[in-house]
User: Fold these one by one.
Assistant:
Number 1:
Amino acid sequence: MLNSRLRVEFTADVDSGSEVVDQISTWLTVPAAVLDAELGHDRDRVVHAVELMNSRATDGDPAAFHCQQLLLSRIYETHMKLPVGDSAEGSIVLHEVTRLLEQATIAAEDARIPPETFEGMPGEGKPYLSWLKGMARGHRVFKHPYYVDFINHHASRADLRTYVIQESLVDGRFDDLLAMMQVGTIGQAKMEIANNFWDEMGNGDPAEVHTYLFNKIYEVFDITDDELEDSMTATDLLSGNLAVLLCRYRHLYGEAVGFLGMTEWLVPDRFQNVVRAWERLGLPDVGITYHRLHITVDSQHAAGWFHNVVLPASSSEAMRRGIARGSLWRLNSSGRHLDERLASASARS
């Protein structure tokens, strides 16, 4: 039975992205049936407000881009966390808002891929894999100065604290991303994802679960849950949103394979710089276990991923294109993300 005392209205100024985000965010703890019943007459205004936000983000408005990604991130929390009370998960209105945000995010990433990128894509598995790796090695993000120079040689304790917060939306829930993307897979791909997931689960040892180890870093820096969202830039939010977006939809499985594969392939080299910085600063050893572990584990995971997940999927042209597309989303978005971090760090020094 619907709660007749609960009233949901859309009263935000459609020209104010922050008002729109704040109001829609309050709906996330409203039962889905109530939300849809109460907002039916306001649907067009809600859609218009989100479309306006997306349009401004596409035109380069940084405030609109932040609002867009913040709202999508908050909505994704309804899918990535168990509710403590009522939830709008399953709402038709909320689904429409989500799809508008997702479609705009997809279009923005696709617009950054030159049309000729796929023209030289090989049609056979091993040549395709070599082409994919070569594309990554040639990308400016592969040895980005944020890691190679700044983190390695110059980062302070405060810089590493900021770094951990910015990485939390991917590293802090990688196990859930793997669990989501494996649905519907079979054979060696499913086994490889399962092996990866079991490693994330500490091979059965609760004290070695990777998300538990990652949270130990929060303890070193005294990072609170409330601080996490408040400290996120739009590109921080985008990194986490892209990962969830690709892993939650079966028709984007190829893109998820490319996105997570590139994430793991880039990790060992990046984390070596983080470990050097941690040791240089003499920070508590308990906080660097996660990064030390992933230098070795992700080297193995990346090799297994390319052989057991990418190669079997590359027999399909559509899948080859999807894997390359997801890889480029990761490379391009990471490049912009690290450019922003480096500029911000340089401005502070």
Number 2:
Amino acid sequence: MFDIICTFGGSDKFYSILDFQKLPDSDIEKLRYSLVCPDCRKQAFYRKKSVDGKKACFGSRYCTCREPTPSSQRQREVGNATEVKQIIAESDTIEISYDSDRTSSAGNEASGISGVSDITQTSNKKVHSIKSEQKRVPKVSLEKILHSLIRGTGLATSDTIIPIGKYKYKAKNLFVKFPDAEPMTKNAHRFYWGTLYNSNNDIEWFNPAECRDVGIPLGSLREIILEKFNISDTESLEGAAIIFSGRCHWNKDKTKKIIKICDSERIFISLPD
């Protein structure tokens, strides 16, 4: 994106990338949470000039309306989101697959099989009439779920059932966008998702782009996560999309919500182009 709308203070102001990058760092820090696409008005981000020579730019993980020729990554995201939309339209239950390279949709893998056997005896011979009915539950990777949430294909507000262990959750309760995160008192599963503004210099914390009052510490999982998603510097995280299983709680002063990442398996990060 070459230009953007800033809604800070309740009024719209247009900025070109040339003008925005000239602002003082303190102003950029203040305004960057209020950037939206001029056409669809979906959340946008600002990425500063990188040390390896990439130009400063605006972007958005939530829209493609300003991309005359979408990148291969964007095409993949849209394709995944469309697939998930179709799956939840045809099935009232899905399972989450944590292996992004191995996913299956309806009809590819049976989650449970129930069978009824009717036995009759004629002339000392047993004739078995087997009636079995298979109930197949689609498995969807965390990557595809993230792309569906980012693209707004209805999963975030869906009543689709998602079993986790011995519990069953509705998608609209299981998947929580960062601005909607609330400290939890019950031991319930939640997957938090959204986009990242940046991290601290040592990549020990992720900072969401959608809100200021949430922080995501990597803790002891730092090295594993950085290696798993090939994260080498803070600049690569600007505009990244993320989803993970986590727990939300207040910081000591109850001024900021902290979301702790549960493990390195139930997480997916989609770095920007």
